[in-house]
Design brief:
heterodimer; A: 325 residues; Rossmann fold; 2 domains; eight-stranded mixed β-sheet; four-stranded antiparallel β-sheet; 25% strand; B: 324 residues; mainly alpha; MetI-like fold; two-stranded antiparallel ribbon; globular
Chain lengths: 325, 324
């Protein structure tokens, strides 16, 4: 498997007045070429910051303090802003969560698309327009010629997200970081967009990092998955294996929390407690305070260790004993 | 669009009518111009004749009726003092005030926008902190005092700039303008800067907060994620969004500058409308006061309309519709 991106021991910290917030604290994963990597976790687990760290858009007071982001033999954490800018939107693109906010309300869609083309390639404006139109057509926007002349507010949320995806696709990037791009959309639109993205990734060989809190989305879309908790990856592996046989109690809880038809009538299961504040994480395993399996041994820091072939988890008491349901 | 304009114009007309009543009654209540205009030695006969000549013997509603009737024919009355048509009197002074107001507006945008952008983009830098401290001075120093200081330094001590009057003027569109001659321009600079000082501060603060707010928006981050150059992000994506509040405030300020630049006009003996209206109020020259206020109302209405039109040009989400 050829690798598109390898993240090694990434640490992104925010230096706030209240203290250092370790939003991302030693995250490692690899994304294979043409593969979809699902980055799963609750709000505040550091998955979005991980995405912004890769594309170099962590704003002060945040900063990537340690780690390597290897892309084509280059470490994105150390290259200059100008070099990074040439990669952004060109080789590595990003799609944001809220389509209502990602397009500039006062600029026409064609302006926002053409400028993206021209930012990375010296082509005529006419050619850039052609490319923009083709990209809109590719993501399933009807009559793209007319739509190019519209303003963002004339589109629905789903259509705006399609525009954002079209912008991300303009330069046929090798990697797209999608930060919960379907969270704000209706389920039907969500399905359409997912199918669209899956098709595009398969056709163009683009790798995806799909950031989400929705396990059902990841189940259908991702090849691999990394579960994040409090700035760290607590478990990773191929998506079907992780979902079928979660090793970490947190993943276990997450999957258990998904309402399903088989459990109709029973009270919904949930993980007790709340995500701890990143300013005062419990010592040792951060999940310890909410974990049914925790004991004194969990007070020590846990490394991510291989438990099964291709599977890693950050836990002393993993669910190894259980027969898969 | 046409429906919208027609609607706005009819609204404006109603505002004008309402204003004319308020102004007329207000001016009537302020005092009796007869006491000031007619010499105390005049006998009863002379007084009566004068009162009749000025139309002050009629009851208020009749005076108003006469005023409206004449106003519809383009006559806003004759000045009691100068015995000239009030409108003509005001229009003669208007270019002086207009060029002063526009000059100061131009300066405030020219200086305020870039400084505000800088302060918004680099809020922590020492330069920004200096700009913000300076803007507090601009807000709080009284205009007349700054005007006097400007005269002290640049006219009296350094002798670089003249301190009073309009200087040479040139004709343009049948009116006299100072800004068209070098000498006139040198006369214009100081009062315009004086008047601009407050507005520079206003534009700086408005721009800065606009920039800081806009920089946090997702669409700015997305623009950066597209790999656009920082210049393009700042001057296209951010700039166009902050223009909306700036245009509103600058529009409103322009109106009040034209209407109420009295202090600066007095300090620099600038022969504009502000000085005329103050003099007229002192001698209760009713027709001039009324005509002046009517013109100012009309001007505010026009400026607001232009601001609204600019809005729709700047923000595509704003639709100018006939139905409110």
């Amino acid at each position: 498997m050829t690798t598109t991106l390898e993240v090694r021991n990434l640490r992104t910290h925010f230096f706030t007045r209240a203290g250092i917030v370790k939003a991302v604290d030693g995250v490692s994963f690899t994304v294979g070429r043409g593969k979809v990597m699902g980055l799963v976790g609750e709000s505040g687990s550091g998955k979005t910051v991980t995405g912004f760290s890769i594309i170099g858009l962590v704003d002060p007071p945040g900063r990537v303090v340690e780690g390597e982001i290897l892309y084509q033999g280059r470490n994105l954490a150390t290259i200059s802003e100008e070099e990074m800018r040439h990669l952004r939107g060109n080789r590595i693109a990003m799609i944001f969560q809220d389509p209502m906010m990602t397009l500039n309300p006062v600029l026409r869609v064609d302006t926002q698309m053409i400028e993206t083309v021209l930012a990375h390639e010296k082509v005529s404006k006419e050619e850039a327009r052609q490319r923009a139109r083709d990209a809109l057509g590719m993501v399933g926007i009807p009559s793209p010629d007319e739509r190019l002349k519209s303003y963002p507010h004339q589109f629905s949320g789903g259509m705006r997200q399609r525009v954002a995806i079209a912008i991300a696709l303009l330069h046929r990037p090798e990697l797209i970081i999608a930060d919960e791009p379907t969270t704000a959309l209706d389920v039907t639109i969500q399905g359409q967009i997912l199918a669209e993205v899956q098709k595009l990734a398969a056709n163009t060989g683009t790798s995806l990092i799909w950031i989400t809190h929705d396990l059902s989305v990841v189940a259908g879309l991702a090849d691999d998955i990394a579960v994040m908790y409090a700035g760290r990856v607590v478990e990773d592996g191929p998506v079907s294996e992780v979902l079928d046989r979660p090793l970490h109690p947190y993943t276990h809880g997450l999957i258990g929390s998904v309402p399903s038809r088989n459990k109709r009538g029973e009270p919904l299961r949930q993980i007790p407690g709340m995500t701890p504040s990143l300013l005062k994480l419990p010592a040792g395993c951060a999940f310890r305070t909410r974990c049914p399996r925790a004991d004194e041994a969990c007070l020590a820091d846990q490394p991510l260790r291989a438990l099964l072939p291709g599977r890693q988890a950050r836990c002393i008491h993993p669910h190894l004993d259980e027969v898969p349901a | 669009m046409t429906v919208y304009l027609l609607r706005r114009i009819s609204q404006s007309f109603l505002v004008l009518v309402a204003m004319s009543m308020i102004v007329f009654i207000g001016v009537y209540a302020v005092g009796d111009p007869v006491e000031i205009l007619i010499s105390p030695d005049a006998d009863q006969m002379e007084r009566e004749r004068a009162i009749q000549a000025l139309g002050l013997d009629l009851p208020l509603w009749e005076q108003y009726g006469v005023f409206v009737w004449r106003a519809l024919h383009g006559d806003l009355g004759r000045s009691f003092v100068y015995n000239e048509p009030a409108l003509q009197l005001i229009l003669q002074k208007m270019p002086a005030t207009l060029e002063l107001a526009f000059g100061s507006m131009f300066i405030s945008v020219l200086i305020g926008l870039p400084l505000g952008m800088y302060a918004g983009l680099r809020p922590e830098s020492p330069g920004s902190k200096m700009i913000m401290a300076g803007s507090i001075l601009g807000f709080s120093l009284p205009t007349f005092w700054v005007g006097l200081m400007l005269i002290m330094v640049f006219a009296v001590q350094l002798g670089w700039l003249p301190s009073t009057g309009r200087g040479e003027t040139a004709y343009f569109l049948g009116l006299q303008w100072s800004f068209l001659t070098a000498n006139g321009l040198s006369h214009l600079i100081m009062p315009a800067i004086n008047l601009a000082l407050f507005k520079i501060s206003l534009v700086i603060r408005l721009t800065r907060s606009g920039v800081r707010e806009t920089m946090l928006m997702d669409y700015v981050k997305f623009a950066r994620a597209k790999g656009l150059s920082p210049a393009r992000v700042t001057f296209v994506h951010v700039f166009k969004n902050i223009l909306i509040p700036v245009v509103t405030v600058v529009g409103l300020e322009l109106g009040s500058t034209i209407a109420f630049s009295v202090v600066t006009e007095s300090v620099f003996a600038w022969p504009g409308m502000g000085k005329l209206i103050i003099d007229s109020i002192n001698v209760l020259d009713r027709p001039v006061i009324v005509a002046y206020l009517m013109i100012i109302v009309l001007m505010f209405i026009t400026i607001n309309l232009i601001v609204d039109l600019l809005y729709s040009a700047l923000d595509p989400r704003v639709r100018l519709e006939g139905k409110a």
